[in-house]
Amino acid sequence: TPRLRDFHPPEITTNGNRLNIRTYYGAAVSPSIASATAAISEVATRIGDPLYLVGGAVRDSLLGREVKEVDLVFVGDVAHLASEVERSGLGSQVATSQFLTVKLQVGDSVFDIVTARGESYERPGALPTVHRGDLQADLARRDFTVNAMAASLTPGTGYMTLIDPLHGQVDLEDGVLRALHAGSFRDDATRVFRAARYASRLGFRVDPATAEWIGQDGHHLDAISPDRLRHEFD
Q: The pTM is what?
């Protein structure tokens, strides 16, 4: 079972101290990614809306794995953030999507930045309907607990402090892959592929309830378009 490299669970103290992942992230990314992350954070701070490191970058930093791709959540207008990054001469916008996301090139690094959002599914196999939300809603829409952790990139006392409302840290330490809710694979059956991919890549075991949900709803893969299936295999 994989363990967190040099990991020590945060002590519960009277002042509510929580795990700070700044050192983990700094060791997991290249200097250019670290510099680009700080630059985007400065732009978000000038705008005045919160920015968070999320998902695989948090997970892999805590596991001591190299981080090459960084996902960020912005609780604000992500198009405005992208335009301010471009206006500042820090980087350029290389892609957008209908799901309130942008892809930014900053130096040699590419960042996927999403507007904090919630989502719903009209039927199995459908693409999600998205709406702007807060960080809590954004984490709750994700696939597995170990991918539903975040850390604030807003300067202050909470900078790079782990935000973990769904207890992904415990599952990460125990090497468990756990879906967030019973309807996860009905909402998006491609998560079946992701479960296999993460379990294999990270050496994690699939939580028994999650395995049961896959068995119940795996047939919804029949409703997924060929393009989306091919993307998962790629």
A: 0.85
